[in-house]
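Friendly challenge for the regulars: who can give me the structure tokens for this chain first? No prize, just bragging rights.
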Amino acid sequence: MTFALLLVVWMASLLAIATSFVPDGYFYSYFSVDYSRGFVRRGLAGEIVNLFPRDDYFGALRVLRWSLTGAYSLGLAGLMWSVLGRGRRSRRKWLLALLIPVLPFGFAFGLFSARTDLFGAAALAAFAVSLTTVTSRRGIVVLSAAFGTVLAVLTLMHEATPFLFGLGALAALTVLAPGLTGSVFRSCSVLAVGPGLATALAVTVFGQQGIAQALCQSVPHGPVNHPMAGKLTASQILHGVRYDIDYHDWMCRAILPLFDQSFGDAMQFVRGIGVLALAGSTLFGIGVLAASTYLIAQASGVPVRRFRDVLLTRKVAVALGLVLFLPVFLTGVDWIRWWTTIAYDLGIVFVLYATRQPEIGEPPTRRSTTVVAVAGIVLALLPVGVIPVFGAPTPM
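First reply, four minutes later:
Bragging rights claimed.
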């Protein structure tokens, strides 16, 4: 109970910091491109803004920015509910459930990495949890088709969505629906991942480029807080000092030119970060993945190797899921964020798998309790999952 209370206080503190000191202008940018100038990537997000009154543009952006964190938090809450709601509650179940929010891909990640792909993460959590309750072959096929449809729609809001969460879908079908025959598994995999990939291909082929200036005309003027542009010190930011910039001018200067990039331009931009920064981000990201799986194993008592063995019963599917990340790594600089997403994809499946294992009903060892408690405190104070990459320039 004490740990649960501390967890609530911690989440409230992070929320207060985010609402008081963290500028949301960058997260707003994910909703500031629509289809008014033609079919363009991420345009569906901007169309949602158009459902709001035009004179409340920035209010709409604020609502949508926080809807991302809300959806992701609901996905984590559903995961915690699934852990506690299956069978008799035990101390290990409580330990595992309370660990989830402080993991590198936990609450802080959804709070400080509020990009539109979080909708895809929430959809994956719902899909994985649903697989633990639906046992019929027809039900799993329907679930896969529904998830694939949702993912296809979300791809119009962020083109990387199927690449980021395809691994999680394939891992969930492998581990949480182990009774599927080969042909049914392949059908479910295609239904779950195929529509999103097809939509991403359509966005790549038919999405207009070279229209940054035209898109710029549709972004309204208005002040937003952007402390980095004013080169404010950490002390000034913590004391509430603002530095307002014109949102229209900032979008046209820092964000919209990226919509004119080709695949090759994006790869060149990633290479420009430098080998040292990318190598450091890779090692740090692998550490995030290793720490996440280790802590889930400690809390649940289920060895990582057992989960790994079940996961690798579909080696080709897992390999394909990992391959899907390659275009994201090649064209996006947020390498730690991509590794944190891999940890999320595999971590939520590991959590749900662990709830089906006999160890989850046993009392935790003193070592497990100590490790999880200490690591939980460290991760709460240092939410490493929110670091996107080392050495990348901040949009100014």
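The first helix runs from residue 2 to 21. The chain has 21 helices and two strands. Your move, everyone else.
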